[in-house]
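Page header: ASSEMBLY MODEL / two components / 233 residues total.
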Amino acid sequence: EAGVAQSPRYKIIEKRQSVAFWCNPISGHATLYWYQQILGQGPKLLIQFQNNGVVDDSQLPKDRFSAERLKGVDSTLKIQPAKLEDSAVYLCASSFPRGVAGAGNEQFFGPGTRLTVL
Amino acid sequence: AQSVAQPEDQVNVAEGNPLTVKCTYSVSGNPYLFWYVQYPNRGLQFLLKYITGDNLVKGSYGFEAEFNKSQTSFHLKKPSALVSDSALYFCAVRDIGAAGNKLTFGGGTRVLVKP
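Prediction written out in full:
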């Protein structure tokens, strides 16, 4: 079974530039998550999609971050303009939605994109 | 609001010795609890979970965890550690009554198993 795919794996940009990350979840997983993991910390949820609708974006800095999942499969996370404190690993994860019998609701993570903002 | 605490930044253990990684949680309702492991330059890998039923949960790679409701803990254990278990371990909690499937992660515990 193919896992969660993310690209690029690494990105270096200067502050005030824009950047976009791409995620392709596991086939059949309706729920998709974007997390930010700052060095030395646990992942923090930025946004959660159920199919192409947003379930939770309460911790997304909406003045500079945006995300979309137009067809309910792939997703893109964008930062514009980037700040130094956005340097982190951006993780995408997917899972079955709540209530799917036997799914257990564990999340499956991609390898992440390491962003460095100079 | 839900939260997770992992009180140890790092745990050092000799190969072959028992390994314990501590986790305590706080939720308003009943918890779903998870352990994930992260190897360098890789995403998180699911180890095990507690949903309901037996308080002792067995997972991948010989790991197990015990749910203790009175102490609000979910410590990860392995009877005999391997050098290859050296990694970063994260405990996570979800409030069963909360909408969505939001996980809250602890800050992580680095495990170093010495030969």
